[in-house]
Amino acid sequence: MTDFFKGIAPIRYEGPDSQNDFAFRHYNPDEVVQGKRMEDHLRFAVAWWHSFAWPGGDPFGGQTFQRPWFGDTMALARMKADVAFEMFAILGQPFFCFHDADVRPEGASFAESARNLEEIVDYIGTRMQGARTRLLWGTANLFSHRRFMAGAATNPDPEVFAYAGATVKTCMDATHRLGGENYVLWGGREGYETLLNTDLAREAEQMGRFLSMVVEYKHKIGFKGAILIEPKPQEPSKHQYDYDVATVYGFLRRFGLEAEVKVNIEQGHAILAGHSFEHEIATAASLGIFGSIDMNRNDYQSGWDTDQFPDSVPEMARAYYEILRAGGFATGGTNFDAKLRRQSLDPEDLILAHVGAMDVCARALKAAAALLADGGLEAARAARYAGWDKPGNAAMLHTDLDSLHARVLSEGLNPEPRSGRQERLENLWNRYV
């Protein structure tokens, strides 16, 4: 035990009228929503990197947090794990996520880093034995170290490609050992800054082969979880190869991996790509590659990824509506890829940030479920496309332009547009949110 969260009791559900800051008002893990416990719908996870490894810096300033476990020793790594599991217990978190660099100190060589990872994974495994918290997904940090400044899989240096592959292998092994339900590939620097020094075709082939190796290794070790790519636009590379869900799908189709790999969609990344969160979720669901989500938000007056905890029920309800329409999570979940503001220094801030975010998501889920149960939105959607359900109209998709031309002439077609009724549907939506 540590004393970092000393005096903070486990957070309990007390209902919407509670005046206790350290209580859930809307997140009741055992509440049944659409036939499933709320906890099983939302599948919350804590991000190890933002909660326990991030020092509080931003592009214009350095460290503001002073945590007792900050440092590059295995003893401090074990302390960090102890604090993490204490927080998981306080929040009742069912899952966590990690990068290798979050949980172990960097070694002087690859072999030393790998030994450090193996040792801390063993320690985390012992902590999991006495806890209810499981691993949602693991991943490799292939972007922070200077060796990855020109990418990992797409790096022009073949030795970096090899180093990245070896790192992913160790992280997949660690994820498998801890019973992880997914493995994520986050291409933070898989892109380019200028075409003056970039061979697009070569880099795409490297990235495609690298991902194929990951899938092959998954089957070799018997890992049953999903392989996920996290779309990442603009930041830090100006042109990212995994820009958004549609771009990732095109890449997967190109290399024959669309049945093997799904996506982990982050709210902040969706915004940076010029989309809404719900658009990216709906697109992934329509393409059959929806996997999991990273829940955060951006400051919409800022041009970079601020990774703030969610605070808008209407915004999150649109996301969960699309998730429910898609059948909910399978192996995925709601990972709080969010960090405190650099002025939020106290241990209580870390707890309350998650409490508030979990309540926001719970309210959003219930609103989305109520609207889906109402059926009005889906009925309006079906009515808008009802003409296509008639046999003669459906058959048009299997004919040719000559047939369409003949039909228009023979039937004297002169169609008039019909209202999309957007405002009416927005009013319906707002009754529930």
Mind explaining what this structure looks like?
This protein has helices at residues 38-42, 48-53, 74-91, 100-103, 110-129, 158-177, 200-221, 245-254, 267-272, 277-287, 313-325, 347-374, 376-384, 391-394, 401-411, 422-430; strands at residues 12-13, 23-24, 32-33, 36-37, 44-47, 95-99, 134-139, 182-186, 191-192, 226-230, 239-240, 261-266, 290-294, 334-336. With 433 residues, the chain is α/β, with parallel strands linked by helices. Strand 13 (290-294), helix 11 and strand 14 form a beta-alpha-beta unit. Helix 5 (110-129) runs parallel beside helix 6 and helix 10 (277-287) packs parallel to helix 11. It starts with 11 loop residues before the first strand and ends with a helix. The model has no long low-confidence stretch (mean pLDDT 96). Homotetramer. Its main location: cytoplasm.
Could you write a compact summary of the structure shown?
This protein has 433 residues and is α/β, with parallel strands linked by helices.
Topology, please?
Layout: E1 12-13, E2 23-24, E3 32-33, E4 36-37, H1 38-42, E5 44-47, H2 48-53, H3 74-91, E6 95-99, H4 100-103, H5 110-129, E7 134-139, H6 158-177, E8 182-186, E9 191-192, H7 200-221, E10 226-230, E11 239-240, H8 245-254, E12 261-266, H9 267-272, H10 277-287, E13 290-294, H11 313-325, E14 334-336, H12 347-374, H13 376-384, H14 391-394, H15 401-411, H16 422-430
Parallel strand pairs: 1-2, 5-6, 5-14, 6-7, 7-8, 8-10, 10-12, 12-13, 13-14
Antiparallel strand pairs: 3-4, 9-11
